[in-house]
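Retro notes
What went well: the complex prediction finally ran end to end.
Inputs used:
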Amino acid sequence: MILTNIESVPGMTITAQFGLVTGSTVRAKNAIKDFGAGLKNMIGGELKSYTELLTEARKEAIARMEQQAYRMGANAVINVRLATSSVTAGAAEVYAYGTAVTVKPKG
Amino acid sequence: MGDLLFLIIVLGITFMTGSIIEKRHFEKIKKREIALIKKPIINFGAKTWNTNRKIKKIELVTGECVISGDYFKNFVASLKNIFGGRLTTFESILDRGRREAILRMREKAIGANFIINTRIESIMINDTYNPQESVPQCAIIAYGTAITYE
C-alpha cells in the first residue's frame, strides 16, 4: 500500500478512484503512566509515555484506513490527512483519512 | 504563610528543573538540526511533484512529540495573562515540540531525497474541564511524503 499526502503518486498514473477511506482510534495509557506524566508535568519536558501513545494511535489509525482501502481493492491512498482531537485528559484520538485509488507505473 | 512558602519552594524547584530540561533539549535539537543539514532532505510545500527521474520509494513519514510545560512557566503565563502581551514561556514550549516532531520525521526519512507537503498538526491535550489551572501539554504530529530516487 502506497500512502502519500499529495494529490498524486509521483511516477505513477491513477487508473481508478474509490472515494474516501478513513480510520480512527482513541487510546489511553494506564493510570500508573498517567500519574508519572502528571509528575513530569510539574517539572517540564517531554512526556515520553504520551508520545508513545500518540505513535501507537497514529499507527493504528493508518492501519485501519489501509485495511479499508485494501478491502475496496485499492493499492494506494492519496491525500492522506492526520487529524487529532482531545477527548479527555490522558487520551488521544487520531483520525486518518484519504482517497483510495489504484495506481500503475507510468509507461 | 506556610502555603506561600510552599508555593515559593515549588516555583523555585520547577524553575530550576524546567530551565535545565529546556536548555538541554534546545542543545540536542540544534545538534540534530545541524547534523541533518548535510543530508539531502528538503522539506517542501509542493502539492504535486513532476519529475523525469525514476522513483524507487514513496512513503508517508510521520514524527510525534508530546511536550509539557512546567509549573513555573504556567504561573508566569497566568500572571502575564492579566496584562496581555507575548507569553514567552509558552512560545518556547511550542517551538521545542514542533522542532522535535519535524526532526523525528526527517530522521525517519534519512535516505530519502525529498519530503514534500509537510504538515504539522498540533493539539492541546491537557485537562479539558479545567484548562485555566492545568499545565499545558501539547501533542504535535508532523507528516509528509518522502520521495526516494533510484
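What we learned: The two ends of chain B are 70 Å apart (CA to CA).
What to try next: split runs per interface for comparison.
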